[in-house]
Amino acid sequence: MAVTKYTEEHEWVRVEGDVATVGITQYAQEQLGDVVFVEVPAVGRKVAKGEACAVVESVKAASDIYAPVAGEIVEGNAALADSPGDVNAEPTGKGWFFKLKLADKAELDGLMDEAGYEAFVKSLG
Questions:
Q1: Domain containing 100 — which CATH number?
Q2: What is the pLDDT of residues 17-44, one digit of tens each?
Q3: Are strands 62-66 and 3-6 parallel, antiparallel or unpaired?
Q4: Could you tell me the residue range of the domain that residue 74 belongs to?
């Protein structure tokens, strides 16, 4: 069964086995506005927790997407190159950014669950 966790940078991470799929939350895509470009990391790249490894650009701003946990990139969502709007339409579905093989599952313990993330977003006002 998949477990989903959230970061204060508004990324979600869905873990199945030792692979984590990463994207941005509904809140994040609403803040960005219409997404016009996405750059995903290359397969094989090793990333540290908190490292900027993808880019999303909207009509309002460009933002880095950070690795919520350390690991090795096993897949980038190449479809976003042609359909960056998927990030707006389905941020937690086909709008995912990359998948990585976890280096240390214990890093997930520092992330928020859905209730914790919802409370965090409310605290932002």
A1: 2.40.50.100
A2: 999 999 999 999 999 999 999 999 999 9
A3: unpaired
A4: 3-123
